[in-house]
Give the backbone structure.
Amino acid sequence: MSQVSKDFFFDGMVLPVTVYLKMKVDHYLILGNKGEKSKFSNFQSYKNAHSSVYVAILDLPILINYVTTMTEKAVQHKTLPDGLKARFMVGLASNALQCFDKKGFASLVELQRVSNMVLGLGKTVSNFNDILNILRDLKEEEAKYAMATSMVSVMLCEEMDVNLKGAVEKVALGALLIDIGLRYLPKALLERPRHLWSPADNALYETHPAKGVEMLRDLKDVSSDVLLIVAEHHENAIGTGFPKRVRDLKISPLSRIVIVASYYTSLIFNSRSEGVAYDSDQAISYMNDILGQPFNKQVFLGLKNIINRAHLQKKMGQAV
Ligand SMILES: [Fe+2]
């Protein structure tokens, strides 16, 4: 059985798979059968915040695919009611979940907890509606990448015990927004493989962090920490990033986290490696051996710890 997010379900949806409520170890109650309309809110124990919902492992891809497809359809409408916007975020999260689960980044349960936290941003960020509108205007692949980067960033915060008030929310939000400046770059450039870029193309690409910051300045209530994350997300610890080529100490602590998360995620999502999508171990090797580990040491160690723990959990799961 696989635990899944309650956010996937709403009353009245036709269930694409059979869904269970976990009662105790190895005991499940059927909440709804495949093809039935969901009426989960009638179940008292479902409403309990601690109750968890499961589907058969083989049904998980079907459920995720269903939620994603439904969400993508909804997103094509320009004027979305808030509920659908929320579901748009759930769709992005489910896509990222599916990808990371395959790549050995972290256990599905852990990822779901983190994705719920990112989705919960709507409750803490006053202008979340504006943020959602911005994300909705990104290309689908970019929006998925943003959500995935946000999830990895949140896990890194937890791994590194970053718990200053509001810090995790700022990291999650900043990571969602890092690439919004890309929309100002010519589509033809972004579609061309990077090895074909001219120096002028590279220079143009390097303007996207500043363009993102400019755009966010027009919104009310975006904190300066979030703006810094967007501005610095392509810098690195040894000063070979862009646009300012500053070194580790000059980079904000929250940006250091998002820098590692976004590089790792881009390797996993195949947005940097041109034709090769890496699994977690390959991404770590690439960042360490090929790039020479140009990232903040503690954050990179945190990433390795998360991945090693996922390996261990998988081994223990297989041994049971
Ligand atoms: Fe970027």
Remarks:
- Strands lie at 2-4, 19-24, 27-32, 53-55.
